[in-house]
User: What shape does this take?
Amino acid sequence: MGRFLSKLSTDMLKVSTKKYILIFIGVLLFMGYLSTNNVTGTARLKEISNGIQPLDMKFSYSQGEAYDIIKRLGVLGR
Assistant: This one.
């Protein structure tokens, strides 16, 4: 196991250059943009669902809030 981790660490050091780190950060930012501001993102979902934020996009919610959201979405929203 120690040899594997040592090799993994060495390989990661080779890849973790400024170029690859900047590319990684760019990809993360782009994915964040797509998930919040694009027609496929949460803004579009809220529009389709009359402003109700989907449960899986909320950080936390109570059981009562979950049942209320499900009721407000109706059969088509499930």
